[in-house]
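Table S2 (text version). Query chain:
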Amino acid sequence: MSASMVRKTKQKEAIFKVLSSADSPLSPAEIQTRASLFVPSLGIATVYRLLRTLKEKKKVVTVEIPGEAPRYEISGRAHHHHFYCRNCHQIFELGKCTDQIEKLAPKGFLVQEHEIILYGRCPSCAS
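Corresponding structure-token output:
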């Protein structure tokens, strides 16, 4: 493994700090904008490269919304779901998942994992 994959860098620390403090999944462009406050010279290619590294090390996870570019959030958090605003395209985190989800599957089916995405308009866009 190369030294750059192991060592801490200002760029990696800035990206991790941004993701750790975010209250919703972020796009690479959003990560770059926020992390540039700490490392002004941070480029988008570096953001993508470091996100790939952090994902390989299981420090971040990808949030996939069909038809949208992937977003990223810190890993190791409690299981949760997301709300996607079709108007402003923001993603919001939903609270605790119901423990009754397995009952939605037909009889005899074994649920191994699930992801729920609610679609609509956030409070700002709904008014």
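Notes on Table S2: The chain has a mean pLDDT of 89. Residues 44-56 form the longest helix (13 residues).
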